UniProtKB/TrEMBL annotation:
Coiled coil: none annotated. The active site is at 380 (proton donor/acceptor). Its cofactor is Zn(2+). One of its GO terms (molecular function) is zinc ion binding. This is Zinc carboxypeptidase family protein. Belongs to the peptidase M14 family.
Length: 428
């Protein structure tokens, strides 16, 4: 009798405890990132399934899942929501999943404020990534949901919209480049959350003739970031072309314009919820203010010092965006000559130039073109352009740019000398 009496009580206690645990598990969806927004942009979660066999988390730099709900034993819904709405449709997600025993999970991505744009990549270490389009078994009409079938085991599996390129990874890359004698590394300012906005200065001569490169105003635009890295590596390489260029030009690089957005796994904006590439009129943010200050410092009275501005991004295809009249900016006709040379170099490739895109928007290229009267180009790589193709294109375009700019500067200096020598001597 006694045994019979105790047994149901134990069962009841056990099931009550399990129920409580499951409620806790479902509700304990918000994580531990100390950099949480006060406005509710909670994108770092750590979720454990009812039976504690599956863990899904996004509480790491660049991670993003806004909520996880368990639907069935092996079925989970992940809510993916942007930091701000409305927003450009760049629906970023990144999470890590593991299970105590091998199993297959159904993971449904539910998008709020955007649609399924990026087929997933997977990684076992967060560093080496593989395309995993095959995980997607269904995309619902209008892209509001995508269903993934994911095999998991006790080793963490990273699933991300694009490969993760964290601030830490970029810092390591900066430090590697900065080891060269002719490269310096410092900061131009700080973000809303006080992260450094880093700058590389590449020069063998401290020449006042300068080119300016930047990337990552938009955190999800990984292919653009890879493009900038390969482009900068070509300029800092130990080749004759690059050495000659470095003796005549100083290259300024701001690899990450929006380090807060990168850290938080934002779709588009900085920590204040502002799209930085729509802030180049009123300059309301510390990031754009630092960039403006930096760019204005090359406007030396009466002398040309800035020769080219390139802002690296990603979109649906490879394309160079410029203002319509970019060839009238200094150095004259440079953009046409550069893109023409690129087309001749890569016969297999279609150099796509759009000279009217966003011409009235408050973008970096529009401001640089109008305020500094300099050739300004938004250099976009496609979301799905392969890393080896980006490397070949970025290396080739850097090479053609260096060749043409050295030529242009020589011409420009000769013209200036001729002007001086043909001016009449001042009256005595
Ligand atoms: Zn962009």
């Amino acid at each position: 009798m006694r045994t019979r009496k105790i047994q149901p009580t134990r069962t009841l206690l056990l099931s009550s405890a399990m129920a409580l645990l499951s409620v806790l598990a479902v509700n304990a969806t918000y994580g531990f990132d100390p950099n949480y927004d006060s406005d509710g942009d909670q994108s770092a979660i750590r979720f454990v399934s009812e039976d504690r066999s599956v863990c899904i988390r996004s509480d790491f730099p660049g991670g993003r899942v806004n909520r996880c709900v368990q639907i069935g034993p092996n079925e989970f819904d992940l809510l993916i929501r942007p930091e701000q709405q409305p927003i450009n449709d760049s629906a970023w997600y990144a999470f890590q999943v593991r299970a105590t025993r091998p199993c297959e999970l159904t993971i449904r991505l539910r998008y709020d404020g955007g649609t399924h744009r990026y087929a997933p990549l997977i990684s076992r270490d967060g560093e080496t990534w593989f395309p995993a389009d095959r995980l997607v078994t269904a995309v619902h009409p209008f892209g509001k949901q995508a269903v993934l079938q994911v095999r998991v085991d006790s080793e963490p599996l990273w699933v991300s919209a694009r490969q993760l390129l964290t601030n830490h990874t970029v810092d390591e890359w900066i430090e590697k480049i900065a080891k060269r004698d002719y490269v310096d590394d410092d900061v131009i300012g700080f973000s809303v959350e006080n992260r450094p906005i880093r700058r590389l200065t590449i020069s063998e001569s401290r020449s006042p003739a300068t080119i300016f490169l930047m990337a990552r105003q938009h955190p999800t635009e990984i292919t653009g970031m890879i493009g900038l890295m390969r482009f900068v590596e070509a300029i800092s390489a130990q080749t004759d072309r690059a050495s000659k260029f470095r003796k005549q030009f100083t290259t300024i690089v701001v690899p990450t314009a929006n380090p807060d957005g990168v850290a938080r796994g934002h779709w588009r904006c900085n920590a204040s919820g502002v799209d930085l590439n729509r802030d180049w009129k009123h300059f309301t943010q510390p990031e754009t203010q630092a960039l403006r200050r930096e760019l204005l410092s090359y406007r030396t009275a009466g002398r040309r010092s800035l020769y080219l501005f390139l802002d690296f991004h990603s979109t649906y295809e490879d394309v160079f965006y410029t203002a319509e009249d970019v060839d009238q900016a200094f150095p004259p006709n440079f953009t046409s000559a550069w893109l023409g040379a690129l087309q001749r170099r890569f016969a297999w490739y279609n150099v796509n130039h759009d000279a009217s895109h966003n011409s009235n928007r408050t973008t970096s290229k529009a401001w640089v073109r109008d305020t500094l009267d300099v050739a300004a180009v938004t250099y976009e790589f496609g979301d799905t352009t392969k890393p080896n193709e980006i490397a070949e294109l970025a290396n080739g375009s850097a090479d053609e740019m260096m060749r043409l700019l050295v030529q242009r500067r020589t011409d420009h200096l000769q013209q200036q000398q001729q002007l001086v020598s043909t001016q009449p001597a001042p009256a005595q």
